[in-house]
Design goal:
Helices cover about 45% and strands about 15% of the residues. The strands form 3 sheets. Strands 3-2-1-4-5-6 form a 6-stranded parallel β-sheet, sandwiched between helices. Strands 11-10-9-12-13-14 form a 6-stranded parallel β-sheet, with helices on both faces. A two-stranded parallel sheet has the order 7-8. It has 18 helices and 14 strands. The protein starts with a strand and ends in a 12-residue tail after the last strand. It is an alpha/beta fold.
Length: about 450
Amino acid sequence: MRVAMIGTGYVGLVSGACFSQFGQTVVCVDKDESKIERLEKGEVPIFEPGLDKYVAEGVRDGRLSFTTDIKEAVANSDAVFIAVGTPSRRGDGYADLSYVRTAAEEIADALDGYTVIVTKSTVPVGTGKEVEDIIRKRRPDADFDVASNPEFLREGSAIEDFMRPDRVVVGTESQRAQHVMRELYRPLFLNETPILFTARETSELIKYAGNAFLATKITFINEMAELCEVVGADVQDVARGIGLDGRIGKKFLNAGPGYGGSCFPKDTLALVRTAEEKGAPTRIVEAVVAVNEERKKRMAQKIIEAAGGSVAGKTIGVLGLTFKPNTDDMRDSPSLDIIPILQDCGAAIHAFDPEGMDEAKELLENITYCTDAYQVAAAADVIVLLTEWNEFRALDMQKIKANRATTVMVDLRNVYRPEDMAAEGITYHSVGRPFIAPEGS
C-alpha cells in the first residue's frame, strides 16, 4: 500500500521507516527543507537505536522517500498519517492542535480518491471528529474516512515497539477504513499481535489513559521511596515485593527523579485539562502531575544535602542529561529542573551525556561539558548520576576516586548497591534505600 506520513519527527520518522519494513511504500513529508535534505542524504536527525539502518534500507529498496510536497504525497496515497507535534499549549497545559489542524487543511486540498486519514499524533478525545469536520468543510466532495491509531513507542526501543508491539489500537467504525488498516498492519496480524478496533473517541482516550496510568506507577513508587528513606526500608525490595503480584506487575516501579520525556508530562497535563473541560476531573492524575513536579525539586535538595547543606562555590558533576538512556531527547528531562536549581544555589556544573549534549546546549546555560564520566568526576565535589546510560553502570571507582580525599556520589537511578559503594570508600546516597557509611569513615 501507499502511505504518506505527515511529519518527520520522532513518531513520524520511526513509523514511516517501520512501515517501509512491512513492505509498504512510504513517503515522509515535512515543511522543514533542511531536515528533508538531511534525510535524503541518509542523515537521521534524531538518535534512536536501529533507526538509521531502517531508513537506509527503506531508501535503498525504493520503499521510503522524503519530500516537502504534501500535495503530491497525499494524492498518491491510500493512507495518510498525521504525525505532527502536539505540545502542551503555553500557559494552560492544553494540547496545542494547531499543527494537526493545518495538516488537515492541507490534506483536504490534496485528496484524490478514497483515502484513510489517520491521526498518529497524541490528541485529545474528539480531535478525530474535528479533523473530519475540517476536511469535510473544505472538500465536501472528497471520499475519505478519519481513523485514530495512537502510537505506543518508547524512546530508546521504538523500533522493537513498532515491529513487535503489545497491541495495535485503531479507532474507526468504517469497514473500508478497517480493511486498509488491516492491510497496513498485515505482518502483525500474521504474528498474532492483538489488534483492537474500537470507536474513534475510545482509541484517542486509550493513549492518554495508558500514559497516565504508567506515570501514576512511577509517581507512586517515588512517594514510597520518600517513605522508605524515613523509616529505613529499601524501595527496591518494596517494588519487587509488590511487582510480583500479577495484578500490579514489576514494570515502571523504578524509583528515580521523576518522569520526563516527550509523552508523560504533556499527556498527563492534557488529560487533566480535557477532563476539567468536560466536567469529569481526574483527581488522581492531577495529584500525579503535582507530585512529579515537586519530585524534581526534591531531588535538587537531596543533592544539596549530600554536599553538606550548601553547594555554593562547589562543583557538581552530572552524569546523564537526557530524560532516559538511548535517546538524545531532552524534553522535560529532570535535568532541566535540577541543574538550574543547583546553579541558583551557587554551584558550578560539569556534565557529560553520550548523546544529549548538543540539545542540552540549547536548553541549559553555563555548563562545562566533558568528554566522559571520569573527566566529570575529576572536577566534582559531588557526582550525580542522573541518567542510567549503560556506560555509567560499571564505572571504575578507583578512577572516580583518583586523587580525592573523599568522594560523594548521589545516584538518582539506584544503579549501584550501597554496600558495594561503602566498601569502595565512597559516600553514596541513593533513592529510597538505607545509607551505609563508607568504610574507614
